[in-house]
Structures are given as C-alpha cells and as structure tokens.
Design goal:
- It contains eleven helices and eight strands.
- The chain has 254 residues and is an alpha/beta fold.
- The structure holds phosphoenolpyruvate (PEP).
- Phosphoenolpyruvate binds next to β8.
C-alpha cells in the first residue's frame, strides 16, 4: 500500500510566536498518528524555526519555492542548497499562485523541479486546471501538458522521488472542493500518464489532492484509491483543523 501524506502550505502567513504555538499544538495532536506522514512548507524566514522545533519529530518541513539556479546574482532568490542547509525535505513547485501571480511557466517549473531533485529534496509538483479549462473540457490536456514537461525533461525515474499534488485552481482557497469522484478521476489519469512510461513507479507515486481540504471533507477524499493524502492551505494554519486532517490520513491508511 502507498503511504499517505499530509503537507501544510502556510503560504505567506506566520509570525514567530504564532508559528511556535501552531507547531507545538500540531506536534501534540499527531503524536500517536503513526500510519501516515506529515509535513509543513513554511515561508523562508521560518525555516530555521521549523528546523529547530521539528528535528527528530514526526513533522517534516520544507519550502514553498526555490530558484532553479545553484547560486549567482539573483537578488531575492533562494538557492536549492540553502534549503538543504536548513534541512528541508520538501519543496513545493509549480503552485498555481506561483504560475499565475509570478508568471512561472511550465518550463520554469520544470527547471525548478530538476534543481530540487539534484539537491536531494522531494519536489511537491503541483498541477491543475482553471475553472475555464474544466468547463471547456480540457482538464486532462492541461494536466497532461504540465506533467509532460517534467517527464520529458527529468525522466520518469525522477517520479520515484516526487510527490504530485493535483490542485484544481478553482478549488484553491475558494471553499469549493472537487468532489471525491472528480478528484479521483484526475488522480487516476495522472497515475496512468506515468504508468505509460513505468508501471511500477506509477504504482508507488504519491499523489496529493489540494483545494479547500478541510477536516470534514478529508475522510471521503482520502478514502479514494488514487488519493494519497492532501496539500493543505488555509486549514494548515489552524492546529485543530490540520490535526483532524492528519488524523483522517492516519485512519485511511489503517
Ligand atoms: C494550497 O495553497 O495549496 C491550497 C490547497 O490551499 P487551500 O487548502 O486553502 O485551498
């Protein structure tokens, strides 16, 4: 059976004091949830805090972006090796907010993906369609293209070290969740795309669902055969909600 994984994406939220209280509560809440894996992707300035509070615990940590360059004159950018220095296991790549607000193309996302793999981190590679694309009936084409760029470049072998997050753009931060059947259909499609290249890698691939996952909808989503957990935005900022979602993953993995 594939592992279940729940990762929080804090986006641009947090302060030292708030983070401390949140992480303490989450650590307490997941103490006995041994069946699944858990992580948080925090803003860069809080990586040191995450590292010092989470080292040796059940909660891994990571970043929400990285530069595709190893080093150089790239003011404001953060190199993969810098994230490794702070113990990051995960790095989110190709989030729809990066694609839409920071104009990150499939090609840039693919270069960042390569950089994360090269640095030894696990990319959480986000794919997903907009509402117009879903209504236009091109969800599969959009997701296939987003995946294809990475598969063509890094090769299917890289998928063994990758987490994919299917995040329909229309469901992120909107309170609208894809139904379990809608999400399952796209997850199965993603797995099938990878299976065309390597069946075994596809079977082991961890595919998270993201988009308004909450305590109340997580059990149904995580019960679907190709949904291996969640990438959680808003609800990851509230300890009680995030722990409830972690518990749903733990229960689904039993
Ligand atoms: C996200 O930011 O990846 C996300 C899924 O956000 P939310 O859970 O708030 O929809």
């Amino acid at each position: 059976m594939r592992r279940k994984l729940v990762v929080g994406n804090w986006k641009m939220y947090g302060r030292l004091g708030r983070n401390k209280a949140l992480l303490e509560e989450v650590l307490k809440g997941i103490k006995d949830l041994n069946n699944a894996e858990y992580g948080v992707c925090v803003p860069y300035p809080y990586l040191a805090q995450a590292q010092s509070m989470l080292q040796g615990t059940k909660l891994a940590w990571g970043a929400q972006n990285l530069s595709q360059h190893e080093e150089g004159a790239f003011t404001g950018a953060v190199a993969p090796g810098m994230l490794v220095d702070f113990g990051c296991r995960y790095v989110i790549i190709g989030h729809s907010e990066r694609r839409a607000l920071f104009h990150e193309s499939n090609e840039i996302a693919s270069a960042k993906f390569d950089a994360a793999i090269k640095a030894g981190m696990t990319p959480i590679f986000c794919v997903g369609e907009t509402l117009a694309e879903r209504e236009g009936g091109v969800t599969e084409q959009v997701v296939a293209r987003q995946l294809e760029v990475v598969l063509n470049h890094a090769g299917v072998e890289a998928m063994a070290k990758t987490v994919i997050a299917y995040e329909p753009v229309w469901a992120i931060g909107t309170g609208k969740t894809a139904s379990p059947d809608q999400a399952q259909a796209v997850h199965a499609f993603i797995r099938q795309q990878v299976a065309q290249l390597d069946g075994q890698t596809a079977q082991g691939l961890c595919i998270l669902y993201g988009g308004s996952v909450k305590a109340n909808n997580s059990p149904e989503l995580f019960a679907m055969p190709d949904i291996d957990g969640g990438l959680i935005g808003g609800a990851s900022l509230v300890a009680e909600d995030f722990v409830a979602i972690c518990r749903a993953a733990h229960m689904a993995a039993q």
